[in-house]
Design brief:
The complex is a heterodimer of chains A (256) and B (263). Chain A is of the alpha/beta class and 256 residues long. Chain A has helices spanning 48-56, 95-99, 101-105, 110-123, 139-152, 169-186, 197-203, 237-251; strands at residues 3-14, 22-33, 37-41, 63-68, 71-72, 80-83, 157-161, 189-194, 206-210, 217-222. Chain A folds into 2 domains: 3-79 and 156-251, P-loop containing nucleotide triphosphate hydrolases (Rossmann fold); 88-154, no CATH class. Chain B folds into 2 domains: 2-38; 49-262, MetI-like fold, CATH 1.10.3720. The longest helix of chain B is centred in the C-terminal third of the chain and has 38 residues, at 172-209. The chains are: A alpha/beta (256), B mainly alpha (263).
Chain lengths: 256, 263
């Protein structure tokens, strides 16, 4: 399968003022197929979130070749959308206005926006909450809005930066189920960053383990569990075997 | 939830906060009035609520109070208006540009902390007793809350929200209109609440030192004439205006920025 997104020899060093430089990514390689769900797990600060921001077009790498659909990546674009760990909802906007943000930035008129946002709000189960402000929502509801906002511009690629890390364990489990359901109908390419091995296995086609900083791809695991997946799959021997393998790969990279 | 099953609250329960506040005001006025049942009353040196009320009604009926207030309102509008424009602009620059804030923070802090009313006589000497002198005193007193709040507002802009808008293809203009302005606005309105109080002090001080008309002048003149009932009536009018303005801004804040309720 030709890669839909490919990164070759990506290098990035942060040079914060008044402090020494930090090498975030070193010779980082990645290939993501079209419609694939790929998760990245790695120790804190290994550069996995940084790479998402590079793909999003917010950070320019120092060197390396990043292509999407064969074309070199140039700045932000509506073909990619990010779901942020801390939601990133605009607190002065209602649910509906938050979902429509990307459409508004594209210059779409109010009626056209509504036509697109309504079904999305319905899909995330927030009908009736269109006029609520973020502070009136629970964490899970906020992230549903974050997801709907990302989907509103109909991007080909969803970038998810520990999207469920700020949620409690049960809400997180439900959101994973929801995400799989949406991914299966919307057919997006997903790059998902997480700290949770179980989450990565449950959701993904492949799981990449990254080294500690400066981050490189250490090993990639193919997750051959059948879809659609359900909660019970998480207690099967196959699932646990993968969990152990990935943990063994990851634990050497973690320093406490 | 237990609250939903709670029995219906009585009128006094529901309005307990307001009623208790009003009760304290009523007790204060009654005590003031009652004290002169024991203490001998001399209207040259003290006054009491019933006389003040009479004086207030007369001042309103004659149109004097309204005229004085209208005269004082003119420099207030100029001075306060200039404070909004200059304060917000300077505050935003200081919030955005680190070097500007490094340079200006100490001097601004010194001015903000000092009793600037001490400069009022000097301002009157330079600019006279007319509108401009008063407006400058009001400006000097009320500009600082706008500067500091606008600066704090810009610094508090969430970087994540900037990234969100930028990642969706937002332009520099979008960043201003959709993130920075809505972030900073509530800070500026909160600053306005503080600035109103300081601006009113500015009017009074300006007119105490040198003026031939206006509410501050009226207070000073009635004091000189030992007409304490009318002096207190004018002070009462200023108190009402101060409360209406600050509470009005607070109300407008809640109406305009409903999301702030959650912060």
């Amino acid at each position: 399968m030709p890669a839909y997104i490919s990164g070759r020899n990506v290098n990035l060093t942060f040079r914060p003022p008044n402090r020494g430089p930090v090498r975030a990514l070193q010779n980082f390689d990645i290939d993501i197929g079209e419609g694939e769900f790929l998760s990245i797990v790695g120790p804190s600060g290994c550069g996995k979130s940084t790479f998402l921001n590079v793909l999003l077009g917010l950070i320019k790498p120092d060197s390396g070749d990043i292509r999407m659909d064969g074309k070199p990546l140039a700045g932000p674009g509506t073909d990619r959308a990010m779901v942020f760990q801390e939601f990133g909802l605009l607190p002065w906007r209602t649910v509906q206005a938050n979902v429509e943000l990307g459409l508004e930035l594209k210059g779409m008129g109010g009626d056209a926006r509504r036509k697109l946002s309504q079904p999305l709000i319905e899909m995330i189960g927030l009908s009736g909450f269109e006029g609520h402000f973020p502070h009136e929502l629970s964490g899970g509801m906020k992230q549903r809005v974050g997801l709907a906002r990302a989907l509103a511009t109909d991007p080909n690629v969803l970038l998810m930066d520990e999207p469920f890390a700020a949620l409690d364990a049960q809400t997180r489990d439900l959101m994973q189920v929801e995400l799989l359901r949406i991914w299966q109908t919307a057919k997006k390419t997903v790059l998902f960053v997480t700290h949770q091995i179980e989450e990565a296995i449950y959701l993904s086609d492949r799981v990449m383990v990254m080294t500690k900083r400066p981050g490189r791809a250490k090993k990639i695991f193919k997750i051959d569990l059948p879809r659609p997946r359900d909660y019970e799959m998480r207690v099967t021997p196959e699932f646990n075997k993968l969990k152990l393998q990935i943990w063994n790969e990851l634990k050497d990279e973690i320093t406490v | 939830m237990l609250d939903e099953a709670a029995p219906r609250q009585s009128f006094t329960d529901k309005h307990r906060k307001v009623l208790l506040g009003l009760l304290a005001v009523a007790i204060f006025l009654a005590a003031w009035q009652a004290v002169f049942l024991v203490v001998p009353f001399n209207k040259l040196f003290v006054s009491k609520p019933d006389l003040i009320w009479d004086a207030l009604v007369k001042l309103i009926a004659s149109g004097d109070l309204i005229r004085d207030l209208a005269i004082s309102a003119v420099p207030f509008v100029y001075g306060f208006g200039a404070a909004v424009v200059v304060g917000v602009a300077l505050g935003i620059v200081m919030g955005w540009r680190e070097r500007v804030s490094y340079a200006l923070d100490p001097i601004m802090t010194i001015f903000y902390a000092s009793p600037l009313v001490a400069l009022a006589p000097l301002v009157i000497v330079f600019f006279g007793v007319g509108v401009s002198g008063k407006a400058i005193i009001i400006f000097v007193l009320s500009v600082f809350p706008f500067i500091f709040n606008a600066q704090a507002g810009v610094r508090a802009v969430d970087r994540l929200l900037i990234n969100v808008v930028r990642s969706m293809g937002g332009t520099e203009r979008d960043l201003y209109l959709k993130v920075i302005v809505p972030s900073v606005l509530p800070y500026i309105v909160a600053g306005a609440r503080i600035a109103v109080g300081r601006g009113l002090i500015g009017i009074l001080v300006g007119e105490f030192f040198a003026a031939s008309e206006g509410i501050g002048y009226a207070i000073a003149r009635f004091g000189d004439l030992f007409a304490l009932d009318r002096m207190f009536a004018c002070i009462f009018a200023i108190m009402v205006i101060a409360v209406v303005l600050t509470e009005g801004i607070r109300w407008a804040e809640r109406a305009a920025f409903p999301w702030r309720a959650g912060q």
